[in-house]
Design a protein that fits this description.
Layout (H helix, E strand, L loop, with lengths): L2 E10 L2 E11 L4 E5 L6 H8 L7 E6 L2 E2 L5 H7 E4 L11 H6 L3 H4 L7 H13 L15 H14 L4 E5 L7 H16 L3 E6 L2 H7 L2 E5 L5 E5 H4 L2 H8 L3 E6 L2 E9 L6 H8 L2
Parallel strand pairs: 3-8, 3-9, 6-7, 7-8
Antiparallel strand pairs: 1-2, 1-4, 4-5, 9-10, 11-12
Helix pairs in contact: 5-6
């Protein structure tokens, strides 16, 4: 296994949000963290990244306890794509992506031809070559999200943590990012991502951890863990999980209107 959490407890200050959780993710697999706002998805990321102290247990990457790693070692092996990022200086998009190489060249190093080629490849991979010389702070939020993903890919990590990577993207770019996540798995990169969209988990996650309030935590194969009953308990809404006869193993989640509102919605659609 590439990533292993063993009897982990984590939280803020002295308050544990999750206690004694254990799971593992193999190399090249994608794990999706699914749950409502405020349950601790980002907190779990920050614990793995070393931004919050581990309260109990062990976190292993490739069999090594990451609590003993330096900041530089974590940066070489774990990449993070945050929800929101605004740099203090007006760097170009290309400069931001090249920053993904920082952990490999040292704080005083200068990016070489190899580093710039890796950054260029990441930019082209996501189809944002037309943005390369634009100022990062002047592009849209969705475009910034693609740039941050390119920076993380240029980092060449073993583990890629993505906090709601499709949150600011239009439909076409959401599909682009999810397809890229699937491709990263084929290249041996392990991905952990948070989302509020069960359909995204069905599309690209091998496993899903369902995170609820009061420390509720279930993890398993995505098709087994995401159920209509569990979604209703998590979000307080009714949804239907459907598949497609001509596309095996494909599922999506469709919200159902409240009882009594079906005719009203149908009438609006026929106007």
């Amino acid at each position: 296994m590439l990533l292993e959490l063993k009897s982990v407890s984590c939280g803020y200050g002295e308050k544990a949000i999750f206690q004694d959780i254990s799971f593992s993710v193999a190399r090249g697999e994608t794990l999706c963290l699914l749950g409502p706002n405020g349950v601790g998805k980002t907190m779990l990321f920050k614990t793995i990244l070393g931004l919050l102290p581990l309260m109990a247990g062990e976190i292993l990457l490739s069999g090594e306890n990451i609590s003993a790693w330096t900041v530089e070692e974590r940066a070489r092996r774990i990449a993070y794509v945050p929800q929101v990022h605004t740099p203090p200086f007006p760097f170009t998009v290309h400069d931001v992506v090249v920053m993904g190489r920082a952990a490999h060249i040292g704080s005083l190093g200068i990016p070489g031809k190899k580093d710039r080629r890796i950054a260029d490849d990441a930019i082209e991979m996501l189809g944002i070559g037309h943005l390369a010389q634009k100022i990062y702070t002047k592009i849209s939020g969705g475009e910034r999200q693609l740039v941050l993903l390119a920076r993380a890919i240029a980092q060449q990590p073993q583990l890629l943590c993505m906090d709601e990577p499709t949150a600011s993207l239009d439909f076409g770019n959401q599909v682009l990012v999810m397809n890229r996540i699937r491709a990263l798995g084929a290249e041996g990169v392990t991905v952990m991502m948070t989302t509020h969209a069960p359909s995204h988990a069905f599309y690209c996650a091998d496993h899903t951890a369902v995170m609820g309030r009061d420390g509720v935590f279930f993890v398993g194969r995505t098709n087994d863990v995401i159920t209509e009953e569990r979604l209703e308990r998590l979000y307080g809404v009714t949804a239907k999980i459907v598949g497609y006869e001509n596309i095996p193993e494909t599922r999506t989640c469709v919200p159902l209107p409240p009882m009594g509102s079906t005719e009203h919605c149908a009438g609006r659609g026929n106007r």
